[in-house]
Amino acid sequence: MSQSDHTYFDELITNATAQLAGDEVLLANVTGEHTDFIRLNNNGVRQAGTVVQRRLSVDLIEGKRHVGGAFQLTGDRSLDDARLTTLLSQLREQRRLVADDPYLLFNTSPNTTERIEAGSIPEPDAALADIRAAGNGRDLVGIYAAGDTYSGFANSLGQRNWFQSATFNLDWCFYLQADKAAKNLYAGFDWDEEAFARKIDWSNRQLAALEREPIDLSPGEYRTYLAPRAMEELVGLMSGYGAFGQRAHATRQTPLLRMIADDATLSPLITISENTAGGVAPNFQSAGFIRPDNVPLIVDGKYSNTLVSPRSAQEYGIPTNGASDYEYPESLSIAPGEVATATVSEALDTGLFVGNLWYTNFSDRTACRTTGMTRFATFWVEDGEIVAPVNVLRFDDTAYSLLGERLEGLTDETEVLLDTSTYVERSTMSSQLPGALVGAMRFVL
Amino acid sequence: MTDLLIESKPLEDLLRESLPTDVDYASARLVDERSEHLSVRQNKLEPIFNEFDTGVMISIWNGGGLGYAATADLSTSGLATAVDQARHWARVTAGAMVTTTPPSDHATGSYASPVEVSWDTLPLDDRLELLQQQSRLLGIDDRIVDWRAALTRRDVDQLLVTSGGGRIEQRFRFVYPHLRATANEGTNTQIRTFGANAFCGQGGVELLGRFGFGDAASQIAEQALELLTAPNCPTDTMDLLLAPDQMVLQIHESIGHPLELDRILGDERNYAGTSFVTPEMFGSFQYGSDLLNVTFDPTVPGQLASYGFDDDGTPATRQHLIENGILVRGLGGDVSQARSGLPGVANSRASGWNRPPIDRMANLNLEAGESSVEELIASIENGVYLHTNNSWSIDDSRNKFQFSCEFGQRVENGEITGTVRNPSYRGISRTFWRNLKGVADADSLTVMGTPNCGKGELNQMVGTGHASPACLFVDVEVFGGEE
User: Fold this and answer.
1) In A178-294, where do the E strands start and end?
2) B175/B448 Cα distance (integer angstroms)
3) B174 pairs with which residues across the strands?
4) pTM above 0.80, yes or no
5) Is residue A1 predicted with pLDDT exceeding 80?
6) Interface contact A48-B92, CB threshold 8 A
7) Could you give the percent of chain B with pLDDT greater than 70?
8) Taking CB atoms and an 8 Å cutoff, what residues of chain A touch B400?
9) What is the Cα–Cα distance from B400 to B394, expressed in whole angstroms?
């Protein structure tokens, strides 16, 4: 099915290119999916269904003037050809009203690429049966999503890029009571019964730890271990608000403002990069630029590079590195450290083991001071042993503390964390993160 | 690309004919969206973007199973494929569902957003010039390092037909104006916006005037500059007066989400979270002081989430959720009400054709009180008056929250004595509303909304409406940013 979508997109844009007038240039992007979704609660099904969608987005350029538009492809070639022709006519009309865009930049050196990741995904009936069997006797709640996703770029200059994969993603919890749950994720290209069983076993063991009587901790500072999923929430917030984006840096809106305006640094243990080669996102962006395999963002705690979209490249007179218009990382990686992952509880000794953070936001954005909640499995540990689950706590602390002066170490192993987001369409973002041992983290409520 | 599909009789016939008659319940929900995004940043027009998003969701309940299928292929064969997929899912899930009760309504009716002044009277070049004017009013000082004026219009036509003869046609016309000014000096950056996207609603050109769009730019720019030299918000337990454009967020996060029945039923526990509200609380729980009256009201003309019917086809009416401080009703549609046995409202909503309906807020409004804002300020000995949310965080049971605002004013001995920057406050929903000590009158009541409420698996983003006057709370933990 996906190969036919590839050909369909190629032919659609080839046909549209033949209709262009004069010096017009057409940039086109398509994102699509054929996904089966199963939503679960109490180990039963709440909703289940299939979504097939293919969004075509185009930018019609003449000189430095351009206008964009998008619509859903129907899969009927003659209908979609006609709709694209109509849209292009409409864009031409609007283009007459706009001035030159000083920040327009698109790739004019065609660079055609293709990456296709085949997968072995069970039929949805079988997947549902496997999941419910694993959740038998448990309060399983979550979402299963599986099927093809793809992204394509084409322009009238002859460039073609295609990225598609067949993946599954089971994002679930075993709930014990109230807000106490073992959260887990099983995602990949090939469904493996044994790998799934190991995930279930891990969840069952964590659930057993949660059965102890939970305790309340008073606000204060606690020695803390942040597991990779908790780190994902923390750095995800910074990334989403321009921590690494050129526009946010140039306009002084970045949460890392103190690093560029006041020589602040993170811990020398922190090295962050946009690791496209190690991620699952396309290596091309909407104006046709190919992303480098790796862009160092923070090196040894010091600011290194920003993610530069084509528009920012024009605006600020620097080269683009293939970032999206939003200039946030899609394959963020933090280099591992030296804390032995297998014995991290011993390294923590006495303190909080935080499996997940939740709902982070800024309490002072330009100081990179963030707040958020512990969630799911958070434990109080003494002498390297779990004592009890901890009821939810609110933290309020700065990145310069958590990833700076109070960072004692990072684990020697990293986890690849696939983004489970399905807003509008299934995400292809991911991150690769270690856990972090923090000497003292400030909790306030 | 401008033909209104909702007016196509052949398509409507095709949708109806595609629905199987040998099942317990079937529906086809056509959604046809057209939107225009205009933005001027630093007096330069950014690329205009036009979006067309059209598709159908087929839903089938049969034999205790439920299946849906979403497709943009509106041909006979495309709809037939979707029906087969939905049927298949209904077969697969039969016997495994957490609920087997389909929506009960097969209503007929229609709804249309009230439009007083058509956008046809303000052509594209005039709309662009309007934004250029606002942009020039924002960029008034070298310390304003970034600024933007934007306007999004979104037309959404929906047609729901059901196997029981139901037919609901709804035409929404949404408007989202936006202004933003960013001021900087050294390590101090202050951002002031036009309501942080809260000034959005349904209607035509008249909405811009109703929200004061034309007067806001200068004020925003001046306040962003004022914040650069303002002192940090003090740290203390004090009185807290919240302007309507912060009350939007306070209502949304600490009343709206906790009252969603699907949270209480556990559907959201893997993602958006659960609720501190439990079923036995309805009818007796003292949610807030007796000044607290909150309604679910999809009938407010021009509010962002007004509608005639929810996406399961249930007629929507005004209902009290909290009356004189007592919790009386939850936010759950037909299906959630049947599952929980709790009273609810018509709020089963989907973000688009490709997402199934779930329990959502619609218009959730805090009813006006009797005090003027001036009287509330005069009653404050030691407090702050906060405007426009810029940060929100709350736990997964919707209890422990911490919110921040763009702009704060210090109130001492009954008077506003100055501006403060980086103001924040925190509290616990379960008890916070009991400290509500003043609700401003109808002169302060402002009808707003928020366009980006995220929830659900699969994830969905919808707009919700909130109207509120300014409200006064006592004994709140207030604090500022880093020194």
Assistant:
1) 180-188, 220-226, 272-274
2) 11
3) B154, B202
4) yes
5) no
6) yes
7) 99
8) 373, 392, 394, 445
9) 6
